[in-house]
Structure formats: C-alpha cells, structure tokens
Amino acid sequence: MYKFGHYFLSKIDPELAHNISINAFKFGLYPKINHQQYEVLEQIIWGRGFKTPIGLAAGFDKNAEVINALFNLGFSFVEVGTVTPLPQKGNPKPRIHRFHSEKALINSLGFNNKGSDQFKKNILKSNIKNNSKDRVLGINIGNNKNTEDILDDLKKLFEDLYRFGDYITVNLSSPNTPGLRDNLKSNNFDRIVKGICKLREENNSKIPILFKISPDILPQDKKDIALIALSNDIEGLILTNTTINKNLLRTDLKGGVSGKPLLQKSNDLIRDFYTLTSGKIKIIGVGGVFSAEDILQKMHYGASLIQLYTSFIFNGPYYVDKLNKDLSQIVQEMGYKNISEIIGIKA
Ligand SMILES: Cc1cc2nc3c(=O)[nH]c(=O)nc-3n(C[C@H](O)[C@H](O)[C@H](O)COP(=O)(O)O)c2cc1C
C-alpha cells in the first residue's frame, strides 16, 4: 500500500505531494518498520547519542508537525524548520520541480512556514523531550523576508526555541531569501556568529550552534568562515544547502538545486572545510546522498554525520531503513569497529 502511495505521489504536483505526505504522517499513515540496532553506526556527538549517522535535512518538516513519524521511519536525527519568527507564505507557486532522470529537485519556496509560535506548540505536542532517547532534534532558524536586521530575528528565535532542541542551526544559505547569502561574507558572518554565541552565554545555555553554508561560496569565503568558526568555537557546520548552479539541469527555473547534481560540490566543500578547520569542527554533510556509498564518501572527506532530503522524496518511506542496513553491512565488511573511524581519512 505504501509503495503504491509513494508511486502515486511521485506523479502529482510535488508541493501537493509533500502536503499529502505531511498529512498522512500526522495520521500515522506510514509503514511501521522494526528497525535493527547497529552498534557499528552509533556515535556520541555533542553529548547526544546518534544511533546512525543518517538524519533528515531541514525543509521537509518546516513546522515541526511530524517529528515522531520521521524518527519512526529510521532517521537518527531530524532537523525541523527553517522556522522564521512570523508566519510567511513564501514565493509564488509552482515552486518545487522534479527532474526524475537527473535525480534532482529545484525549489524556490522562500521559507514558507507557520512561524515560531506554532512551531513551538508543535514540538511540545510531539512530546519529543520525554520521548527522546536516541532521537536527536535539530532546530533550523532563519529570518523573515522583510526583516531589516537578520540578527534581531535570529536572536528572537534562539531565545524562543533553544530549550526545545538538541542543537540549533542558523541557516544563512537558502538561495530563495533575497540577500541571505550575503551573511556568509566575513564581516556579516562574524557579527552573526558572535551575536548568537553571546546570546547563548547570556541564557546560560550549552546548546550546540551550527551554521548552514551555501555550496556557491568563493574560496576566500571558505577561509574566512573556517577562521571565524574556529575562533568562536562553534560546534558545527552543515555543508551544504542547495546550489544556484543549474548547468547540469539546463533550465531557467528559479531556485536551488538539490539531489544528485549537488553531490560533487557538497563533497568538495566538506573536504575543504575539514582541512581548513583541521577536523576541529564537526561537519554534517548534505547534498546528493542516494546510497550507502555516498554516505561513506562524505564521511571519508570529513563529515561526522550526514543528512538527506531529495533521495527520501524519490525513494519513499522504506528507504532510510535500507540505507542504515546497507551502511552497517559495508562498514562491518571493511573491518571497522565503529563508523567514526572513517571520518576524514580521505580528506
Ligand atoms: C523542497 C526543499 C525545501 C528545503 N527547505 C529548506 C529549508 O527550509 N531550510 C534549509 O536549511 N534547507 C532547506 N532545503 C535544503 C536541504 O535541507 C538540503 O540542504 C538540500 O536539499 C541538499 O540535500 P539533498 O541533495 O539530500 O536534498 C530544502 C530542500 C528542498 C528540496
């Protein structure tokens, strides 16, 4: 039934398919999978237990509505959001496009979400805090489109939400919010990093803070970001968001490309940042993961964890469980005791 459901969803408008999936998940309509435990895949990072390195990237559950369903499908961590302080509609539709043969999506959503009040209510309703053994929740925050100073929005979101997650991601890399990526330039980035770290201190919080980076940055930006990240002791970088480079898809559609065409670019950034930070800052690798081999490659280049989004859309609800199985088998066959041993060995 679920395989047929997934096939049907792959034939209709992608945003409609997404909304149907979210509603189905809300009503418990997803396969009940008996997941195995794989000791070889377990890691402790930032004091949190990750059952496997595979997490769901931001943007699927923007309003934190179906957290438990996503964990039940096999993700060891789920990043909800991007949430903005106020609700916003996002860009005009249609704004998600599938490219089946290229295994890619283009989206120009523009942080459509129900705002932080509803987001907080949804997290509380999920009861994740009392339910959370080995379920790591990331909260991805971003600014409203017309905000004058991004830091005001980020501070408000941080204060509102830091108690509810296991880590906070500051998203400075969506291509669909005008000007957002300018915040990855040295002076702006430094100001934002310092502002958020200070706020954490003032709140006596120790929540890990991560920054999500664009794959389209210049070599000098990489150096600057690495330096600022190191000197402020931030806990992690998420590499990467979608790319605005559409060469491989030959289309004029607006938005960011995710999926297979992003794989190489994302891997290059992981390798560069792992080297630039001497492996001192944890990297979550994201972009174009479709197989256990893709995961190994990202980890070889320096990622400690990985996330995916597009392959989940293309492959359906049984897919994460299969990836976990495949990955544990390969790592064991390679003779490693734990997957953490492979991090950065090919950087
Ligand atoms: C439809 C869609 C919506 C997304 N929304 C967000 C978002 O709100 N915040 C964010 O940080 N990334 C967002 N992303 C980017 C993903 O989190 C991820 O970084 C990117 O898709 C690359 O991973 P993938 O190739 O596995 O899809 C979105 C991606 C897609 C396809």
Kindly describe this structure.
The chain is α/β, with parallel strands linked by helices and 347 residues long. The protein has one domain: Alpha-Beta Barrel (TIM Barrel), CATH 3.20.20.70. The chain is 36% helix and 16% strand. It has eleven helices and 13 strands. The strands form three sheets. Strands 3-4-7-8-9-10-12-13 form an eight-stranded parallel barrel, surrounded by four helices. The protein has a three-stranded antiparallel β-sheet with strand order 5-6-11, with no helix packed on it. It has a two-stranded antiparallel sheet with strand order 1-2. Helix 6 (186-202) links the parallel strand 8 (167-171) and strand 9. Helix 6 (186-202) runs parallel beside helix 7 (219-231). The longest helix is centred in the middle third of the chain and has 17 residues, at 186-202.
CATH architecture: Alpha-Beta Barrel
How many helices does DSSP assign? 11
Bound molecules: flavin mononucleotide
- Percent strand equals 15-25%
The radius of gyration is 19 Å
Write out the strand line-up for the largest beta sheet, numbering strands in chain order.
Answer: 3-4-7-8-9-10-12-13
Please mark out the parts with pLDDT under 50 across 5 or more consecutive residues, or reply none. Answer: none
Task: Provide the CATH superfamily.
Answer: Aldolase class I
Mean pLDDT: 94
- Tell me the distance between the termini: 43 Å
Keywords:
single chain; 347 residues; alpha/beta; TIM Barrel; 8-stranded parallel barrel; 3-stranded antiparallel sheet; 13 strands; 36% helix; globular; binds flavin mononucleotide
